[in-house]
Amino acid sequence: MYLQINNRKCRSLNGQWGFFADNMGAFGLKRSRNVFEGLNPCEDDRALEYDVDAFDTISVPGDWNTQQKEYFLFEGFGWYAKRLELSESERESIAKGERLFLRLDGVNYGVDVWWNGELIASEECPFLPLSFELKSEQLQSSNLLVIRVDARRMEHRIPAERYDWFNYGGLIRGVRLVRMPTQFIAQAAYHSTEIIELNEAGAVVNGKYTVVCDGASEASSFELELSISELAYQQRIDLSSTETVLSLDGLKVRLWEPGQPQLYAAQLTLYRDGQIVDSIDQKIGFKQIEVDGTQVLLNRKPLYLKGTAYHEERLGKEGGKPRNLDDVRELIDLAEELGSNFLRLAHYPYDESWLAECDARGLLVWDEIPVYWEITYEDARTQKIIQDSATRMVEVSRGHACILCHAMANETWELPGRKEAMTLAYKAFKQLDPSTPVTAAFNAPFRDGCYDVESVDHSIYEYMDVVGLNEYGGWYNPPLAELKNANVIVGSKPLFITEFGAAGPMDTSGPDDKLWNLDSQKAIYESQIAMFERCEGLSGFTPWVVKDFRSTLRANGFQKGWNRKGLVDPEGNKKPVFETVRQAFSQR
Ligand code: GCB
Hints:
8 helices; globular
């Protein structure tokens, strides 16, 4: 289930955990499984060889790769162990009906969870929040939590075995225990703003609030109240099912948009037989996205995207997943310095703190499920991960004001079963968040001096509300000289460039037509940007990529395990192209 955190009080389990790197996947087999049953190795010979209390330690959140040298290239099973005390009063309240959930904010990749030796969950829904309920009878005063993270790259997974980034494994995001009342609001998301009237002072809008409650039984009567005090707005309804969609009509608001990120505090309260049983606070924003021919309209105005594209990798020469909010903020600061209005959070779902930051800063966001390059669409396991990822990603993001579009793929092509499998993602997106455009990033060959996405027969193209194009003119193909008169064809839908770029290793220089130096990187950018300016009707562009990032695919002498196409180097030092892009954005 998806348990939204909002402002709920949680007990953080972040910090030091026991850790064992198991390259054979040997634990959990036969007698060795006793290791996570918490048996005392001195008292019980079945556990003689294993002792979770003697594991090395590791920090959570954090990938394991950048925490110790010997884990750097480790892609197997990582076993995490933590002992947890629960007070008598905590256990009593849970025995009386309060509920307790273990929440993993995001794991790479698969996960199995044992609570006091009992397997309570096995999931493959990478990078997204997972919650598991712990029942009163499973709780003791001292408990052992063991989590196995399976970070192997596998053909049936998304992404599959080959991709251009680094496989940072482990409990990459926070872990917490969440105590909830018997009946509670599990999810609440405001979305689908429709502008009815627009003037200088603001707008009159309609919108929808989807609320999912858990535990509400027929024996009692439940009511749900929404209040937005700044707007003097209140609505109270009887709950007839666990999922409810509230219609908000005729609200006079200031709209949310880049440069004016107006947010409002909303409060939802759940009543049982007239008594408050649960309540949450969240921040919402009102913005309308429409597609009009080949234009994207934000609050009825044409939108030109000045984008910054990311990997979720922190600044610093080691790389690694962000470990705290400051790491995330430093990365988003770069987009603001560039003058961007849009972040492409490529190629997998990012921690929710990115979305909250972008809500507050007024930056639009593209989120993306990891359907990347080769995918085994016909495999039922793959289909399930695609559908679960699409559903969970949108459950997390749809209530955020910053969301511009949901992406179902990056650079995929016609392999058997593609359309059928991607229909699952499309339906999940549209069912949960009908007003947000669906998109994907496509390749198009450079033919007759042009890039034309519609010249390629992509079976998923019909699902696109807006289209992303990745092209690497000047870098992969064609050479820089041919870019001078090149063009991008905008077809029947809004099109924006989701990737272009060139590598620029630090401290290099050279002629424009020779690759692998900062000067030719800049020349390629200038030529590319000139092409975008020539291209009529283009909806914006996004350089690939803000920062050099680790990738095992990148193995020449300039790369040494890093994709060097960043506007800044791993530590955040700016390359000359940073200024090129900043200026181009400032002229828009
Ligand atoms: C692409 C991919 C991106 C790569 C990039 C590159 O088209 O979408 O993940 O990192 O090219 O640098 O080749």
